[in-house]
Amino acid sequence: MKCTVCRGPAVIDLRRHNANFCGDHFVKFCRDQVARAIHDHAMLRPGERVLVAVSGGKDSLALWDMLLETGYDVDGMTIGLGIGDYSSASTDAAVAFAESRGVHLQHVDLRRDYDYDIPTAAAATRRVPCSSCGLSKRHLIDKAALDGGYDVVATGHNLDDEAAVLLGNVLRWNTEYLGRQQPVLIERPGFPRKVKPLVRLGERETAAYCVLRGIDYIVEECPMAEGNRHLRYKDALTAIESESPGTKQAFYFGFLARASERFQGDVEAAQDDLKPCARCGSPTTGDVCAFCRLVEQASGRDPVPVELVRPGRGRR
Ligand code: Q46
Ligand code: ZN
Ligand code: ZN
Q: How far is the C-alpha of 308 from the C-alpha of 292, rounded, in Å?
């Protein structure tokens, strides 16, 4: 197998691009894809301060590395979710990367700063762990970006993630979510701009990028992800992709080009009537935002060990 660019020995084949790459040209390919996503969707402007949401996994660390290498002014933010060893290893990977590059990483810890963690929140709310986890992450990254004066938040969602979310939204015709499924969410009062520069790269590619760049990322999946619908959609699409390379890319980018605009009315309808949360000031439709209600429900309880929370169903 030879590199499509230099004819040297290739280390990876990309069937959807009908190309093979040596290490150097693959790293360049990844950075070019990110640069193209940033350009095509007007994600970042020169001189802006970027905050990357860092989980310690391959996607967020690859993204942070690529943005730094491209010359952007990027800090990281990581959230200690309290999901046992998984969370400590995730934080360690994020800290190690930040130290190796001499860049700033902000760390919020749910237990230390808000007196709850995700397993305890899942048990308290009797909802799937990903529900309180996603809510906490969205709220805290928005808050960190606004408080820290950042222009934009970048997240490590890749093509596999976006295609799987799209499939889930289409299967249920969640029209509001379909309208929001953009690589860029523009800023609004109380919300920073959010961008997904990895939408042109799959997770196999971000993993290979990390290996080639010597980035240590956490390989284990979150123990609470089991039973998560998103993973089932990902597997289904990966099975189709293996028979028909390019399907995920055609599905996602075809949606953006041909269908996403049709759902903007549903997004606008849902944005009506936002007012500041009585406790924290974040935009919300009620008096108190969902994050403050979660903190009220979950904080101050005895911690619930990860093993006692059944992924997908709350407490055993
Ligand atoms: S960390 Fe949190 Fe994920 Fe774990 S509990 Fe679900 S949302 S699966 S990206
Ligand atoms: Zn090459
Ligand atoms: Zn609030």
A: 25
Q: Alpha-carbon distance 256 to 81, whole Å? A: 32
| pLDDT value at 315 more than 60 | no
Is residue 74 pLDDT above 90, yes or no?
yes
Question: Which spans in 117-228 are helix H?
Answer: 118-125, 129-147, 159-172, 175-180, 203-213
pLDDT digits (tens, 9 = 90+) for 155-196: 999 999 999 999 999 999 999 999 999 999 999 988 999 999
The secondary structure element, H or E, covering residue 74 is: strand 73-80
284, 277 contact by CB (below 8 A): yes
Ligand closest to CA 28: 2
How far is ligand 3, taken at its centre, from the CA of residue 149, in Å? 19
**Which residues are near ligand 1 (CB < 6 Å)?**
81, 118, 129-130, 133-134, 222, 224-225
CA 142 to chain centre: 13
- Nearest-angstrom CA–CA distance, 60 and 157: 8
Identify the CA nearest to 68 among candidates 22, 91, 34, 96. Answer: 34
Ligand nearest the Cα of residue 228 is 1
Ligand 1 atom closest to residue 133's alpha carbon, by position in its atom list: 2
Residues 6+ apart with CB under 8 A from 202: 16, 158, 159, 160, 248
Q: What is the DSSP string of 111-143?
A: HHHHS--HHHHHHHHTS-HHHHHHHHHHHHHHH
Arithmetic mean of pLDDT, 251-269: 92
Amino acid at the residue 163: A
CA 305 vs. chain centroid, Å, equals 25
Q: Give the separation between CA 300 and CA 303, rounded to whole angstroms.
A: 9
Residue 28 DSSP class: H
Distance 4 CA to ligand 2 centre (A): 7
Mutate to test the pocket of ligand 1, among 120, 127, 224, 231 (most ligand atoms within 8 A of CB): 224
Taking the mean position of all CA atoms in its chain, how far away is CA 218?
A: 15
